[in-house]
Design brief:
Length: about 375
């Protein structure tokens, strides 16, 4: 078993349930390509409760993230949070910064037993954030919701997307994260799916420099820092510690985060992470939309533990290209979602990582295809 507080062969560290794809925002990067209307085949309240009961079979305290779209568009949201909390699940939520996230809703979530709220900030000002989110007033609504959550005693997480349009905003967003007293800053490196396929990603070299900077932020700030769909942040942090002559470093498999949660050893899509869509399909990640089963007819426990797609993703020896040859594959593993989005193969190399393993002379994901032979 890899060194981790969670045996990710047996259960995910994080289970995300996309309650709905309905949302009033039209964010440039939206994976779900959300629109204001709810889908008629969303899991019902009863089906959702069955899913939560299944999730409890993983373990007491299993983290369940309610996402969307905008989960606040479902009238049964508080009922589902309370039901999951009563089962002993650690219920968290990622609502949208819209008018639906009122103070009363936030107070209701606190009373129902929500453990953390994650809100998105993709710019350090209303102008930049609202332009990216596609809705005037989203920034002010998000800041107001964050402040209300803090006052209600709900720990806050801030999510930020990194792409060519937002990367220069990161220092300003950092200041907002600190001002809000957030517990964690989760920095998501764009995966080209949904509307995000139209956005320009940062280059591998720029991504590497951002991760170097994030490590400095992690050491300087009281809040934790983690990356999403960029597990090579662990490799960057480990290499930096070695270069600085740090002794007693963490064992291979830890995430390399100095100031955040210390139990995310090498977690990637399908390995410590699972996603249930609004209609009940089970994916390794919301950014890797390859179905491995359907709940609640099938058990989320059985799908996660035994579906071929999930077991393949947990086998780091099955990785191909430079990720398969990499000496850091058990620490990192690469973004399986980005590999799938760019090649159609979830086990291929992650094109965002510039690291080339020593002695590796195979193809690189950023190389031009070879010219066909005459």
């Amino acid at each position: 078993m890899r060194p981790s507080a969670v045996d990710t062969d047996r259960r995910p560290f994080v289970l995300i349930w996309e309650l709905t794809q309905a949302c009033d925002l039209a964010c440039d990067h939206c994976r779900a390509e959300a629109d204001p209307n709810r889908h008629p085949d969303e899991l019902t309240t009863a089906e959702g409760k069955r899913l939560l009961e299944q999730a409890r079979e993983f373990a007491e305290g299993q983290i369940v993230v309610l996402s969307g779209g905008d989960p606040a568009t479902r009238p049964d949201l508080l009922e589902l949070v309370e039901y999951g909390a009563d089962l002993g699940l650690s219920m968290t939520i990622t609502p949208s910064g819209t008018a639906s996230l009122t103070g009363d809703v936030i107070d209701g979530l606190a009373d129902a037993g929500i453990r953390r709220m994650a809100l998105s900030l993709d710019g350090g000002s209303a102008e930049t954030h609202d332009a990216f989110r596609g809705e005037s007033g989203s920034y002010e609504a998000t800041i107001a919701a964050a402040e209300h959550a803090r006052d209600a005693g709900i720990p806050l997480q801030v999510n930020t997307t990194v792409c060519a349009d937002t990367v220069d905003e990161l220092p300003a967003v950092r200041e907002r994260v600190a001002d809000l007293g957030a517990a964690l800053w989760s920095v998501f490196f764009l995966v080209p799916v949904g509307r995000g396929a139209l956005l320009e990603q940062v280059s591998p070299e720029r991504a590497e420099s951002v991760m170097e900077w994030l490590r400095e932020v992690s050491a300087a700030e009281p809040f934790g820092v983690k990356t999403t769909e960029a597990p090579h942040y662990r490799r960057v942090a480990l290499q930096r510690r070695r270069a600085e002559g740090a002794s007693g470093g963490r064992p291979s498999g830890d995430d390399g985060e100095d100031n955040g949660p210390r139990h995310r050893g090498g977690i990637v899509a399908g390995d410590g992470f699972a996603f249930v869509s609004h209609t009940g399909e089970v994916f390794p990640s919301g950014f890797l939309p390859q179905s491995a089963g359907t709940v609640p007819e099938e058990s989320i426990v059985d799908v996660y533990r035994n579906a071929d797609l999930f077991t393949d993703l947990r086998d780091r020896s099955a990785l191909s290209g430079k990720c398969g040859a990499c000496e850091f594959r058990h620490v990192c593993g690469g973004s399986r979602s980005r590999a799938y989005a760019t090649t159609g193969d979830p086990l291929a190399a992650d094109p965002l990582c510039p690291h080339v393993p020593g002695g590796y002379d195979g193809p690189l994901p950023w190389d031009d295809p070879a010219e066909p032979a005459d």
